[in-house]
Every structure is written in C-alpha cells, then in structure tokens.
Amino acid sequence: MSEVSTFLRFCLVGAIGFAVDAGCTLAFTQLLAWHPGLSRVLAFTLAASTTWFWNRRFTFRSSAGGRTWLPYVLLTAFGAMVNFAVYLAWLGVFGTGPIDIFLGVASGSAAALAMNYAISRRYVFAA
Description:
Radius of gyration: 15 Å
Order of helices and strands: HHHHH
Number of helices: 5
Structural class: mainly alpha
Number of domains: 1
Shape: elongated
Oligomer: single chain
C-alpha cells in the first residue's frame, strides 16, 4: 500500500469525520441551544470514534481490534487541541452564527489533519 493511497484514504475518512463533527456541532448548538464549546467537545468525541473505526478498517487495514480506540483518541487529542484552539479563535473573530460554526469546524479540522495522520500512522496503526 503506497503512502499516497493511504493518505488519500485517511483524508476520505477525515471527510466522514468532518461531516459527523460539523453536523453534530450544528445540531447541538442550533437545535439544542448548547454552548458552542461543549457542543464541539461532544461532537469531536463522536467524530473521533467514527474516524477510528474507519481508519482501522479502511485506511490502515489494521487487525489490532478495539484495543486501538483509547490510544487513538488519546494521541489524536494533540490534534484535537490544535483543532479546538483554531475553532475557538475562529468563533472569537467571526461569531457563532451557523456558517461561522461550520467554518470554524472546517478550519480546525484542516489545521489538525497532518498531525493526526502522522500520529495514526506511526503510533496507533503502525505495522
């Protein structure tokens, strides 16, 4: 499996994770009127669990099983910190309207992409 094809699969899984993250964040903030920060933490946890599943099965084709979930979530928490910081900075500058929340999630996700790939490839799903 080439590095390029693995990274492209990682990006595809990331797009799925982004949809879960942004969709849940918007649902929690707009439908349930939750605080944007709390909403994002819960949505990120749901998205991280989704991407862990698909990265394990599809991107890295790991047979390690469920024991990789906790290391994945803990190690990608570094990427999550970058992601969340960019998100909060975006909201601080542009506001908390639906489009601003969506663009904040997108900006944070893009900032964390490379970090999460390196962590996943080297530490969580290493062959």
